[in-house]
Write a structure and sequence with these properties.
β15 and β16 form a beta hairpin. The protein has 330 residues and is an alpha+beta fold. The protein folds into two domains: 2-93, no CATH class; 103-315, Fumarylacetoacetate hydrolase, domain 2. Strands 1, 2, 3, 4, 5, 6, 7, 8, 11, 12, 14 and 17 form a twelve-stranded mixed β-sheet that branches. The chain is 16% helix and 32% strand. α1 crosses α2.
Length: 330
Amino acid sequence: MRIISFATQDTEWKTPRLGIILHTNGQDSGHRLDCEKLFAPTERPSNPLAWFDMDGPWLRRAREIAERLERDASALAEARKSGWLVPSEDAYWFAPVPRPGKIVCIGLNYRDHAAESGLAVPKTPVIFSKFSSCVIAPGEPVVIPPASEKVDYEAELAVVIGRRASHVPADRAYDYVLGYTAFNDVTARDFQFGDGQWQRGKSCDTFAPMGQTIVTTDEIPDPHSLRISLTVNDTVMQDSNTSQLIFRVPELIAFITASITLEPGDVIATGTPAGVGFARKPPVFLKPGDRMEVSIDRIGALGNPVVASSASRHQTPQAVGPSGETIPFA
């Protein structure tokens, strides 16, 4: 199952709501199930992150209905009449978790990245965070801060938590995972290294592109054999595989939840492979006019342009097509 967060023109693009991409005969049907329409207004959760709770009634019912619509053409026709479906061309996509409760990031978690950085493989996971206010949608521009000249890209596999998790043993970790998505841990290296700690350099506005979808664990039972790459202006800058991860998803969840409770809608960014800009000789940093694209096997592509701080990031909403193309609304 593939989960999105989207809005439509009738809501003035302001309020994201959960959607499920419906497939028929293995192909995108062209419709998104609007999960809010399955519930009366008084039945919907007050906390938007509750939609991502695998133990809650909202996601469970939405998933059951989506599965029925995909196998029953008559039910799909009834859902269309009931107003449950949104044509793909009418949906503006947000990041699949528009405002996570927490973004927990892992540093130096690929063997090839540790080697290019000239650093020893860590004995335990290196944990840091990004403020959730820096999350942006597929296709939305990354804005270079006026005081930074060294903005870098980092392709990452992200884990979306679907169940409250505290003191979880590694052998039960997957029970707490809703699914996976692509993530770009954009970083101002001059802030990161100049400050002596990472929070500002990692959390500038627009520095957490995420998406396009959450691919649930039934489609990716093992996330440790996925090709992961990043291009800038169609030039391959990173090209690796999640088999290079030093600490795998179960180990990360066990380590984090030993001291930090994870909740539905929290995101773990699992680290970036070799090829980042600051480690190149000479270094390569992002500039206005560039376009980045993260690609992960079985998850898809996440593309974002780069603009100067003087450019407005409040652009006309765009529909995102099944191949990642953006379609401006008139």
